[in-house]
Amino acid sequence: MKKGHQVTMKEIAKKLGVSVSTVSRALKDSPELHPETKKRIVEMAKSMNYQYNLLAQSLRISKSKVLGVIVPELTSHFFSSNISGIQDTAYKRGYNIMICQSNESFEQEKANVRTLVSSQVDGLLISLSRETKNYEHLMELYNREIPFIMFDRVTEDIPVSKVTVDDAHGAYLAVKHLLEQGCKKVAYFSGPEDLYISKKRKEGYLKALSEFGIPASESKVYMTDLTSEKNREVTLAMLASEDRPDGIFAMIDPLAIDIMMVLKEQGLKIPEEIALAGFTNNPTSAVIEPSLTTVSQPGYEMGQIAANHLLDQLDDLVPDEPQSFVLLTTLVPRNSSKKKPNA
Amino acid sequence: MKKGHQVTMKEIAKKLGVSVSTVSRALKDSPELHPETKKRIVEMAKSMNYQYNLLAQSLRISKSKVLGVIVPELTSHFFSSNISGIQDTAYKRGYNIMICQSNESFEQEKANVRTLVSSQVDGLLISLSRETKNYEHLMELYNREIPFIMFDRVTEDIPVSKVTVDDAHGAYLAVKHLLEQGCKKVAYFSGPEDLYISKKRKEGYLKALSEFGIPASESKVYMTDLTSEKNREVTLAMLASEDRPDGIFAMIDPLAIDIMMVLKEQGLKIPEEIALAGFTNNPTSAVIEPSLTTVSQPGYEMGQIAANHLLDQLDDLVPDEPQSFVLLTTLVPRNSSKKKPNA
């Protein structure tokens, strides 16, 4: 064991083959446990030189009744829906929430974690910034036994509960739909390659192509940094290409809408000449013309599930072992892709 | 003076006819002041039984370097723009921000104030919920000398600095534009009557009518609670009316978009048969078809100005006397109203 390493309840639990909540109860001298079990755990904790984390203890004992939430950006309808779900759930259970946004910046995200921890929140719900590749700030939370869970933008590197949507399946549904409508050459407009959702949605795109007998070698992936300028540039480049696609699956709705603007401006008929589908189901997508086929992500429900699970952990209603919740996405077919009646 | 009333620096300042920041400097024993002035202020403070507010003092001395922000809702593009302006400004000056949303609930707003104050923020930026008619929670902040300012949804009842937009002028610009395009009967679709912006925008609407020789008695005001259902119902009722308007000014863009959906569904040509204008300049308004004429509110700049002013107050760079900043709005003419070429 490294010098200076602080032994956690999780390590004691692992050593004894019991759950973390059992260790926690033993160290709190809970009457629910068998005295023998309690004794065994307390002795192991002593032998491992466990220092009961005073901060975590004081947080647990004198609860602030506040949860901290960190999201990449608040202008995104998806994240503001997450927050509504978190807030409504927290409020029903007597908690308030404080929100910080990272603005997709790793440094700001670290500052947010520090700020919320200093404010003595009882627990945190975190969605990572685009820049975050290093997870030491989260590992520190974990080691200090400050309860937190991750949602939407998560990392497998930290053993806490996670709530995500089934990105690959949602993309698969959208691309399958385009192919069913008669599209022969479907392109995937992707955000930066290292984004989790870029990869996951590409998986779904390739799976749908493969089901329709189109090999990955014939896939058409267009990359953009998701700025409106670049989205426009890439769309124009695609239109100028020799083997022009007749269907487009865009990674997110705002990208799909930028693409739609260019297609309309260039006089292309949607969906007759090019069909289009997005992913998110932003409010704009329903009112734009033609209305945008998209994949609905349950943002509000994601917030509800994340908040309820964290509060269940705080109230010792569920084991501390990390859970993974994967929510289903659904296809919302609209006029931008419907070539066949009643299809 | 009421029993239990806590004397404030503001009261001492008033009594002596000096500024609050002078009182504050005297009580901090600042070398900038003339010893005589200092003596006079300290004696007055003693005679009034002033208790130097320990919390405010500790906040000022050991700064948390965090500002608290309370907004009615985060799904609104306007408020999320405010927050971006606040956050970017705060970040540049070494501060982080924590955000709470009231969800338009008075109770939640009070809980948010308590939460942020308990978290020892250095100051607050507050935009009121739709329900807030009682300002005791703000008066308490004021009496405790916790620095805060208000933005967008403000009240005249609390003597702190405020940042707002010129609502009446923006509405005037939109309605004048509709009249200039040849509309003869312009309706105003308004939110709940007691909302500050409902009133202010109505002022601008009536002013424009009056300039075009249309008396207030011939104005056409349609009220809605701003839910999509009610917006739809009111629009259908307007279309069924005998003296159908040929132009509509909607109080906010989301309402204008709901109206547009109904007009399109009913086969009305926009702007030929009915011209339409909104207020906010949401991103959807630019991409909808026809694109929506609207009034642009500088949400980001409002956040910047509010944050800079609060931080200036915290750093004693400006006097503590309340300031009022009124930002200008601008007309954004688009296809939903342009009847005349180059008009």
TrEMBL record, chains A, B:
It comes from the Bacteria. Signal peptide: none annotated. CDD domains: HTH_LacI, PBP1_LacI_sugar_binding-like. SUPFAM superfamilies: lambda repressor-like DNA-binding domains (SSF47413), Periplasmic binding protein-like I (SSF53822). Gene3D superfamilies: 3.40.50.2300, lambda repressor-like DNA-binding domains. Keywords: DNA-binding, Transcription, Transcription regulation. Residues 7-61 form the HTH lacI-type domain. The keyword Transcription applies. One of its GO terms (molecular function) is transcription cis-regulatory region binding. The keyword NAD does not apply. InterPro entries: HTH_LacI (IPR000843), Lambda_DNA-bd_dom_sf (IPR010982), Peripla_BP/Lac1_sug-bd_dom (IPR001761), Peripla_BP_I (IPR028082). This is Glucose-resistance amylase regulator. It comes from Cecembia lonarensis (strain CCUG 58316 / KCTC 22772 / LW9). The lineage of its organism: Bacteria, Pseudomonadati, Bacteroidota, Cytophagia, Cytophagales.
